[in-house]
Write a sequence for this structure.
């Protein structure tokens, strides 16, 4: 493989984009592209499509590739895209990663294979290594996806060390969705000066992360609150920063009182006046009427809005 | 969907067949078919290809379909096949299940979608229901795969009740790999007289299971010890049954002292004199030399062999 060349990295707030489904549960391509364009207009620096909040693992590789192609042809800059490409099956990860690079995506966000639990760092190293070697393209930028509460398969600091040493430039960073600031801080302290960009998995840690050398955040709530979250990123050195952070943290806390993924869809449906957004693929289910009423009422009371959506 | 018609169900010992990989990690079709034919000659009543021990989730749908097609055209009776067809992605589960039915498989062993944790029974019901409705074929026999130590997503008794009530005849049974006999017993007591066939996920529970109304077992060790395990099934009402059970339990205990999946491959490689079998796909790794030596030495000391293999 040729060495990596210098290339502008994605920095700022990324939304792990929720995926709309039609009545027959097929991905709704047009609604998806529209939402992505709104997110980019509203402050997002990039889009981590096909993440946990995207119900990515509930879709086949071909369905995701169709959505990705539609985004790129639909005018969303490929350089701002960081699609999820990590699957349980090595061959699926390779296929999806190769296509993402071919389309010019700025990076890929890669889950470890997550079926087997208690696997060794050696096994995970081999997985990422095989994908990188098979794709074999100097444009590839891999962001490792650490989300132990869901995947149950952690990306350890030792694994990062080994991958970064072997593939500098290609292994470009991580999303840390552990919810454990001490882990995010440890990632930052150890790797931030080695071309490894750390993105906390929640805007709750955005300001702390930026002050410790992080590059932004990749956050669920970025789907519905991209403007104010991006304001923290743009103003993090200003006197207003802590106040802006307090505002987005307060909004986050309202949203996460109910199950996050159906909440994001219910909020988008409500504030965008488009009930089609509420639908989820099994095994996820929509919010109950009570949950929906709660989150909408509390957001309204807090002055929340989604400007120019719908 | 048309009602299910009477059809002979799979009963006895099934092996969740290990999958051989070539040097480039592609599935080794010929070796796979050869091993499957050996298992059927050696006492297996059926083959649960594409299970946990098969590294099924480490393969793409297309790779599995190629293997399944090769088995059927290679002379393994489709009626004895119970391929794993449950994926995280609804559309993958539908595709794989539809093809299995089209090829005439006796049943399918279906994992729940396993990425999201803590999902509701309602969400899981919708998943299985969508697959059954979309396949829409009266020949479909679904065996639910309960393996909480790996999937982290349990199949509860309440979920079985609901599925069995809605799809009698199609929902045909379960593999219980919880390792918790009290759960297996509860499944048997509640559902065994309602056309729901329970298979413990280890031969350690084979005799207890048969005495409580079970239909056999689907067990990892069936890959290497099919003859003696099948002897317990065939002789479970005889005076020899407990002694036969003690023998297969002793063998199992030797094997499971080391990681199971690489152990099965190392044993097959050693006793079949075919080192190609040792290879695994990431994230799994082969046994260490010490582990391999330990399991082989202890099996030899116990008089273990794999007759007519290799």
């Amino acid at each position: 493989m040729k060495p990596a060349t210098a290339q502008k990295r994605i920095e700022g707030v990324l939304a792990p984009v929720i995926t709309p489904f039609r009545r027959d549960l097929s991905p709704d391509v047009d609604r998806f592209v529209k939402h992505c364009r709104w997110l980019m207009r509203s402050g997002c620096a990039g889009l981590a499509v096909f993440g946990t909040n995207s119900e990515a693992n509930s879709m086949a590789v071909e369905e995701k590739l169709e959505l990705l192609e539609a985004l790129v042809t639909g005018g969303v800059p490929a350089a701002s895209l960081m699609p999820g490409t990590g699957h349980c099956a090595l061959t699926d990860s390779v296929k999806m990663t190769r296509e993402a690079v071919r389309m010019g995506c700025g990076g890929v966000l890669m889950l470890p294979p997550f079926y087997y639990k208690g696997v060794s760092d050696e096994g995970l190293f081999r997985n990422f290594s095989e994908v990188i070697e098979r794709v074999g393209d100097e444009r590839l930028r891999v962001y490792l996806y650490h989300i132990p509460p869901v995947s149950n398969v952690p990306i350890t600091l030792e694994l990062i060390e080994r991958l970064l040493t072997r593939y500098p430039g290609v292994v470009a960073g991580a999303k840390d969705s552990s919810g454990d600031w001490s882990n995010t801080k440890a990632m930052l302290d150890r790797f931030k000066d080695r071309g490894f960009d750390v993105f906390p998995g929640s805007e709750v840690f955005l300001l702390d992360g930026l002050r410790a050398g992080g590059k932004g955040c990749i956050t669920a709530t970025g789907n519905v609150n991209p403007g104010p979250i991006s304001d923290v990123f743009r103003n993090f050195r200003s006197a207003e920063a802590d106040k802006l952070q307090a505002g987005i943290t307060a909004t986050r806390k309202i949203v996460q009182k109910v199950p996050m993924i159906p909440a994001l869809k219910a909020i988008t449906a409500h504030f965008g006046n488009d009930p089609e957004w509420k639908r989820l693929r099994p095994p996820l289910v929509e919010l109950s009427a009570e949950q929906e009423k709660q989150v909408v009422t509390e957001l309204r009371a807090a002055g929340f809005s989604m400007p120019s959506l719908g």
Q: What stands out?
A: DSSP finds twelve helices and seven strands in chain B. The first helix of chain B runs from residue 29 to 41. The CA atoms of residues 68 and 262 of chain B lie 22 Å apart. Chain B touches chain A through 38 residues (CB under 8 Å).
